[in-house]
Amino acid sequence: QVQLVESGGGLVQAGGSLRLSCVASGGIYRIHNMGWYRQAPGSQLELVAMITSGGMTDYKDTEKGRFTISYDNAKNTVYLQMNSLRPEDTAVYYCKAMVSVLRGDILEHLEIWGQGTQVTISS
């Protein structure tokens, strides 16, 4: 079964750093892109950063310069390095991946989500 497992969330003080990790597993034929989204209480889910298998990245404008997304192809793992954290970064962070899986002769394209990891920044 294809799945994403996130780790690295926690409680840090404002100005601190965290690194989130997300590992994809389960018979994946190809990963097309992986990304991080977040949802704060009372707010909508929003894109934080994403990266393609070729290394192209995209960031939420307000996070450029503070957050860095990277991808380890050999480990099927995406990372989000978050620096200079602010209380408004507090949210549940979700990993998402667009993948292909081979089921017999059929290549299926799937969008999969992780279970989320809580990030809390204290002031």
Describe this structure in words.
The chain has 123 residues and is mainly β. Helices cover 0% and strands 63% of the residues. Strands 2, 4, 5, 6, 9, 10 and 11 form a 7-stranded mixed β-sheet that branches. Strands 1-3-8-7 form a 4-stranded antiparallel β-sheet, with no helix packed on it. It is elongated and about 55 Å long.
The count of β-strands is 11
Cα(first) to Cα(last) distance is 40 Å
- Class by SSE composition: mainly beta
**Shape category:** elongated
* Sheet having the most strands: 7 strands, mixed
Radius of gyration: 15 Å
Mean pLDDT: 95
* Poorly predicted regions: none
Order of helices and strands: EEEEEEEEEEE
- What fraction of residues sit in β-strands? over 45%
- The proportion of residues forming helix, as a percent range, comes to under 10%
Number of helices: 0
